[in-house]
Amino acid sequence: MNYNFLIIGGDKRMGMLAQKLKDDGNKVKTFANKVEDINELESIEDIYKNNYDVVISSLPLTKDNVNVYTPLSNKKISLQELKKISKDKILITGNDILSDEATTILNTIPTAEGAIQVAMEETNFALHNSKALVLGFGRVGKILCSKLKGIGMDVYCEARKTTDLAWIKAYGYKEIPIEKLKENICKMDIVFNTIPYKILDKSTLILMSKETLIIDLASAPGGVDYEIAEKLGIKAILASALPGKVAPDTASDYIKEYVYRKILF
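User: That's the sequence. What structure does it adopt?
Assistant: Structure tokens below.
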């Protein structure tokens, strides 16, 4: 490809992306993400001393709306500085990657597998034949339901839309309309949430068994009232951004595909 890339911040996914872009014959430098055999720039001043065709930022782009997300480094770089650095260059941000439908769909696979891994680690019973409730039937919910059924779980899924409820039934899961959530949630062994707002509030949590495990896959701050869950003795785990934690190698492949599509087309 023979492009000059600068990768700023990010987690293991971005580090593996840097290595794979280099393996493809590109020139790659990083800032705030140390990768073996790749030159990590030490300062913002060093960034300006080099030329780049493409600047790639972390995924997610930011956690505080001020600085680029740099979880693997103490180095900081502001969003304003990123804008200056990328002037007259191709800029690919974490927000761009997250808004790409194809990449998002592919990322649901490691998300679902990671959710099952968390469930296995946090329970003392076999998942086979246990009851799982998935809140939401969006991209993640669809893949997660399929994989849970594949390992023999008794799968329930909550949704609001009539069409979603019909698809849930058609796939062989047990459909739960939102208005019947509270009367059914007490029966579950594990609840997986994919809805990005506080659906598991006090009025719902007080109806749950203390033995039920909640795995929240929604982006931080998640869809659970964690303070109330703790007071009630219900174990709730915020397990967002799982692709970068459980399958960074696979996730970096998806990101690389997006980067090349963005550049070439």
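The first strand starts at residue 4 and ends at 8.
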